[in-house]
Amino acid sequence: MLTTPSIFDRYEEVRGRLPTATTATSTREISALTDISDEVSAFVFDAFGVLNVGETLIEGADRRLDDLRSVGCHLRILTNAASYDRKGAVEKFRRLGLSIEAEEIITSRDAALAALTPGLWGAIAAPEDTLEDIGVDLLRIGQNAENFDAVEGFVFLSSSGWTMEKQENLLLSLKRSSRPVIIANADLAAPRDHGFSLEPGHFGHLLMDEGIDTVRFFGKPFAEVYDLVEQSLPHVGPDRIAMCGDTLHTDIMGAAARQWRTVLVTQDGLFSGHDTLEYCRRSGLHPDWRLARI
């Protein structure tokens, strides 16, 4: 069973594979993001645990985004969710009740697909994913073990329906023939309505544990998604961008590595019900600001 302590401990175990960052030396408690809107020109939001939990909007998130727009702040959503394309992302956030434009959403899927080279790729994807936004040849990877050996690389978009039997087939195929593995969601786990789900990052690190050295992660805390955000905010300096997230090893670490400011949101995400100060102390990862909900 996944728990906050077990997820945190696993992030610490794989920390040598993550970017390095120097975080804040002290954390200031705030009650709302509008408290710091004069210090920040652009707020970048994680989704799960900050704006929503599963298919449920966190109370007040829609109003807070409207408040920040009204004082002239730029808004971006930076999500590691790679199970659906850009159109699906826009539809999801609007269905949750958020006023958001397509260009304000940056996903780890965007970054991962930009790294695909010509050839036949094995797509590990949710059954409902049409894969129409992917501009390379694809073979959907399922139970058929022969398919694993037929492709020139793997793009891991979703862990929906992924099993340890499939994971073993993937590992054995990679040991027979080394090929790139693109992990399009670097998260180990994500908060859902009824607990945590294992995400593609978890399975990527399992491969690395077994000596597979062709795994490449996309999404927070890795650099490519931050490049995309900064490209969309050409006139905003890094010290005027604040990342608002619920995890230390993805949201806070990744943003600090870019010299962004950081806000740890504590009530609904990974650390819900836990003392985040203790986890900050244990990891040495400290946000600039901390609040319960945005």
Walk me through the structure.
Helix content is 32%, strand content 20%. The chain is globular. It is of the alpha/beta class and 294 residues long. The two termini are 29 Å apart. The strands form four sheets. The protein has a seven-stranded parallel β-sheet, with helices on both faces. Strands 8-7-9-10-13 form a five-stranded parallel β-sheet. Strands 3-4 form a two-stranded antiparallel sheet. It is built from ten helices and 16 strands. The model has no long low-confidence stretch (mean pLDDT 95). It folds into two domains: 23-110 and 221-291, 3-Layer(aba) Sandwich (Rossmann fold); 116-217, Rossmann fold. Helix 9 (248-257) links the parallel strand 14 and strand 15 (261-265).
Please provide a brief summary of the model.
By secondary structure, this protein is an alpha/beta fold.
Specify the CATH homologous superfamily of the largest domain. HAD superfamily/HAD-like
* DSSP strand content: 15-25%
* Named CATH topology of the largest domain: Rossmann fold
Largest sheet: 7 strands, parallel
Helix content: 25-40%
Structural class: alpha/beta
The oligomeric state of the chains shown is single chain
> What's the tally of helices?
10
Low-confidence stretches: none
Q: How far is it from the N-terminal to the C-terminal residue, by CA?
A: 29 Å
Cα shape: globular
Counted up, domains total 2
Describe this protein with a few key phrases.
about 290 residues; alpha/beta; Rossmann fold; 2 domains; seven-stranded parallel beta sheet; five-stranded parallel beta sheet; 10 helices; about 30% helix; about 20% strand; globular
